[in-house]
Design brief:
Three copies of one chain form a homotrimer. Chain A is an alpha+beta fold and 136 residues long. Chain A contains three helices and eight strands.
């Protein structure tokens, strides 16, 4: 059984956001056994799994990736959509456009401290389209 | 249903290349509903999903990852295969050896601007072996 | 058929470790055709697929990621668990919390030089919980 569910997220501020609750709400009843795949249909935002307990982790992610992928690097040429656009593509490639994790006993098999992040890299982002796929 | 299809890519130049057309051609008829997994059997090339409209994005990727993972860093010791080899392994780990995305209505569920990249990190690359796996 | 197998790894030293043998041992008989997904339930360690032949590659990975994600960066605020903790989260996000690869003819379809890495980022790590999921 393969089932797809669209999840339209509203525009989030630039930064890292734990969206595990939004995903669980969209999933509703979770099958006993399977795998969840989450895909983002955009190239200037990403998904990853990381620490969900301390909000300082989220702001440190924003600080670090801005430090390592700064805006206005002289060698970048894809600049027509603004200085935050090409860095957003690079960050999206580094973090990835999908995550997947096991479903066991009707639960996502997240570790104790793990949550699913939406990583929003644009200053003036639009709503983002995700596809949740369940195999069971 | 799980089906594997090998895809042998010819040697590409060092850089980032949109290979969505080659993947679609190899897939032929796509099932109505499922997921596509693409795997690269190499450690100095990678796969990712990113912007496929403006070719400047591809050259900016090459410039950025050369900047962040330069050749001839003093602390690297795995140098027998040339100065581009260990940076290639590092870039491959940062970008990843597989991508996966939903199949909906007989189509890959790529966003409007998304394409699948072959990221070739070697100066004198050989052909690359990919495995396309469809679950349906 | 979806089957989950837990794999509890003992505490490894900080660094990069090829764990393909441990995974193969836990899997036992591998089905003829399918896909393997490996998931790590932690946010300061990661999984990736890379070169498994030369141990110098493993130490070069440790050197490079320490160089690019150093400890004690002034702008980091999540510091209560020690200077190696927030860099560990960042490295985990860059490398990822899961890998997946095809199963063909009762074998993992690893390329000639590929192995599965446990990437341990903490100085005093604990045992790590992995979940191996086979679809067949």
């Amino acid at each position: 059984m393969i089932q797809h569910l669209g999840l339209q997220l509203p525009a989030y501020e630039r930064g890292y956001h734990v969206i595990t609750p939004q995903i669980l709400q969209r999933l509703g009843d979770i099958p006993q056994n399977g795998l969840l795949h989450v895909y983002i249909q955009h190239t200037s935002a990403a998904l990853c799994i990381n620490e969900s307990a301390d909000p300082d982790v989220l702001t440190d992610f924003e600080s670090f990736f801005n430090y390592i992928v700064p805006e206005n690097m002289q060698f970048l040429t894809h600049t027509i959509e603004g200085p935050d656009d090409m860095p957003a593509h690079i960050k999206a490639a580094m973090l990835g456009s999908s995550i997947s994790l096991p479903i066991i006993d009707h639960q996502l098999a997240l570790g104790t401290w793990q949550g699913i992040y939406l990583c929003e890299f644009r200053n003036h982002a639009r709503p983002r389209s995700l596809i949740l796929t369940i195999y069971a």
